[in-house]
Design a protein that fits this description.
This protein is α+β, with helices and mostly antiparallel strands. It contains 6 helices and 8 strands. Strand 3 and strand 4 form a beta hairpin.
């Protein structure tokens, strides 16, 4: 398996063919916004390949030498085989020199149903098992409560700096009025 940088055409294909299956509609930004972040140098996009087959992908927002995992998915037929863990390890190695790599995971403590709590707890445990650390920062993004994690080591350690870094990614991609209505502690 290998990580390869994706071009805009590949990103468009992934968006149209896979992201609508891998993510709920309310979690997907419009394709034009994703393309715009790539064109402005604010997003790294990688495909995970096994031979010529794309089996996973990751999109990371970037600001200076810090990053935030925006989308990560493994093809349904390849899930539960340790491939997501391998991909996170590859990303951790790829971004070893980054100042900080943030991740959002839905806060299971705020889940509304037992089913949601179980799913969110499993997702959180996956990230914690695979090189992520809970920062203690809790944020709401579009009314969804998140726990903020870091992948690997982080030069950004105190909660105020982590909060500022987190919100800076959304300031970068959202219009001011949308940001002010939807990003909060």
């Amino acid at each position: 398996m290998r990580l390869e940088s994706l071009n805009i055409e590949q990103v468009e294909n992934i968006y149209n063919e896979r992201m609508s299956v891998d993510f709920p509609a309310d979690e997907l930004r419009p394709l034009r916004i994703i393309i715009s972040t790539i064109e402005k140098g604010m997003c790294d996009c990688y495909g995970l390949y096994d031979g010529n087959e794309l089996i996973g992908y990751a999109f990371l927002l970037k600001k200076d030498n810090s990053f935030m995992l925006d989308y990560l998915a493994i093809s349904p037929e390849h899930r539960n085989k340790g491939i997501g863990a391998k991909m996170l390890k590859m990303l951790k190695e790829h971004y070893a020199d980054a100042d900080t790599v943030l991740l959002e995971v839905e806060d299971p403590d705020k889940a509304e149903t037992d089913e949601d709590r179980d799913l969110q707890s499993r997702r959180r445990a996956f990230y914690l098992r695979n090189g992520c650390t809970d920062t203690g920062l809790r944020m709401k993004c579009f009314q969804v409560p998140f726990q903020i994690l870091v992948l690997g080591n982080s030069k950004c350690r105190d909660i105020d700096s982590l909060r500022e870094l987190y919100v800076s990614f959304y300031r970068m991609i959202l219009p001011k009025e949308v940001f002010e209505r939807n990003i909060a502690e």
